[in-house]
Amino acid sequence: MKDLSQKRVTNLSFATVIVCFLISTVISLWSLHIMSQHNQRELSKVLAAQIYDDISYELSQPVMVSRTMAHDSFLIETLEKENQGSRNAAVLISNYLRGIHTGLNYESVFVVSQSTGRYYTMEGLNKEIDPENNPYDRWYTTFVESGDEYGLDVDSDEFGQDAWTVFVNCRIEDEDKTLLGVCGVGVRMNRSIELFDTLQKDYNVRIFLIDKNHLIQVNTDESRIETAYLDEIDLRSVTPNQYFYQKLGNDRIAVIRYVDPLDWYLVVESDGSNERGQFVSVILLNIAAFLLILIIMALAIRAIAHRTMVLSDASLKDHSTGLYNRRAFEEEKARLANTALDANFVYMIADLNGLKAANDTLGHEAGDELIKGASDTLKSCFGKHGTLYRIGGDEFAALLIADPETLEQLKKQFDRETASWSGTMVKDLSVSTGFASSREFPSENITELSRIADERMYAAKDMYYTSTGKARRTI
Fold first, then answer.
1. What tens digit of pLDDT does each residue of 73-86 get?
2. Which end of the chain is more exposed for a tag (fewer CB within 10 A), N or C?
3. How far apart are CA 216 and CA 265, in angstroms?
């Protein structure tokens, strides 16, 4: 009966969750239906604000650069000297433009001389413009006759593989306001077009930049650039720093914003079927329904992970010294064998001298004291610079990161501390060490470094027994 009762409770709980989920889904869909009738305008405004910020940053920076060039005294003086017949003008101007291109990485940087018609780029004198006969050059006459300080022109770059480019044109004038020429930069539209395309797909809208004549200047459909008009958009009511809303029929709405220093208009057109907004609303409501389950799962996973970590850490530690054990050492060596070693990587091997003699003459407690003394001294000197391991009864290892100067200081510190160490049962401590670093052997892997360190450690051990006259341990 108890099992049956528990089964009924489980089934009832399960049914309750399903009913709650269904109710939540119905409420979500109904709420979505209500909200879709009221939030189209505000959603379009948010999207337009995001697009406006991105476009302003992307295209207003070249305007500032071009205006700065136009007021640069060096460029003004160079063009004035060109009028006086200077032969160095081409070299000076091309070097100037090359510096801007190198520093800011614009696709095109140019200067056109009013007096000579010369078209300079970072590569030098490219040509002399001929607006009357060359259609590529008619932009110059159009811009100069406009009288504007600066202007934007979308065109295919004659010197850039005909890629669609936004050219920022700026008037260069002397102190008397006499026209000396036009300068500016060209910025590839690839990034802007990609940005528009991404936002249009994500939010199911259509994005345009149009001029005051309703002519499309920027759009993902290149065939419409400077060929199509958005005549149905009303620009007369648009005021600076404000968003203007216009209903276009068939549930279509346009959000319009004047982009001030470009003198263009941003148009974000939506047809009211923003699927992304619908899915977001449904997902948010469903997340609320399952939030409790997710929290419980997260807490359970965290507890299991913590317990697993504790058990794993315990299996990799030497309990008598607190250092990592040989298993951990071999795992780390295997990992390092498949990776590039740090430039300051150091492999250290250490062997405790006299452990067998201490065990045989003073007992194993004395030997334990000696092992503990060695491990504590190693931790004190090298612990902050890497990981220490006890890989055998009287053998230790360390994988360190230390530059040569630091390593020498650590070695001297270790020699001082071992020399001054004194225990209760054992009065002195001696440890033979061997080091091999990536600085010494930059082309060697960890396997070869370990071999070199072993050889140096055994050499140090031989020197210890030779100098002290003590007998080597026998197994």
1. 999 999 988 866 66
2. C
3. 10
Which positions ≥6 away from 363 have C-beta within 8 Å?
A: 425
Closest CA to 383 of 404, 373, 398: 398
Q: Which fold has domain 40-56+191-273?
A: Beta-Lactamase (3.30.450)
395, two tokens: 């053998």
pLDDT digits (tens, 9 = 90+) for 374-398: 999 999 999 999 999 999 888 999 9
Q: Regarding the domain delimited by 326-468, which CATH topology (the fold level of the hierarchy) does it fall under?
A: Alpha-Beta Plaits (3.30.70)
- The secondary structure of residue 367, as a DSSP letter, is H
- For residues 392, 396, 398, 402, the Cα torsion angle rounded to the nearest 10 degrees is -170
CATH 3.30.70.270 residue spans of the chain: 326-468
Q: Residue 225: count other Cβ atoms within 10 Å of its Cβ.
A: 21
Report residues of the chain scoring pLDDT below 70: 1-22, 24-26, 28-39, 83-87, 155-164, 189-192, 251, 261-262, 272-314, 471-475
- The DSSP secondary-structure symbol of 471 reads P
- For 464, the token pair is 């210890």
Q: Which two tokens stand for residue 245?
A: 């809303």
